[in-house]
Amino acid sequence: HTGRFSNASGSTVCSLCDNGKFAYATKQTNCSDCAGGTGTFQEGSSFCSPCAKGKFSSPTPVTFFGESKNTEIVIPPRGVCELCPMQTFQGSEEKQTCEVCPDNKFTKVP
Fold first, then answer.
1. How does DSSP classify residue 45?
2. What is the predicted pLDDT for the residue at 67?
3. Strand partners, 38
4. What is the four-CA torsion angle of 2, 3, 6, 12, rounded to 10 degrees?
5. 56: which strand partners?
6. In this model, does residue 76 exceed pLDDT 60?
7. Kindly report the CA angle at 3 between 53 and 39, in degrees rounded to 5?
8. How far is it, in rounded angstroms, from Cα 86 to Cα 17?
């Protein structure tokens, strides 16, 4: 089955790939990381999907600054599409980061 792997000789079961990783073929010995701007939605995925508008996924840690500009928010790479933090936005799909709101603009909670 795709979305699973086995890295042990003589194994009788395959493990699901973690969320944020995928296995697109059978008989794989490991799972691959999703590329930046894409992610998975569950364990055992066989492919990565583009992140929707308002979300991002980065292969490296991303740092945002909190409302006071003195607070750092570091989001580690996870291979899943994350919501853009408050005071940032993303108007395009398949992006690796979010843009900071310009002065006198802010994000609203839906």
1. B
2. 63
3. 50
4. -70
5. 82
6. yes
7. 15
8. 30
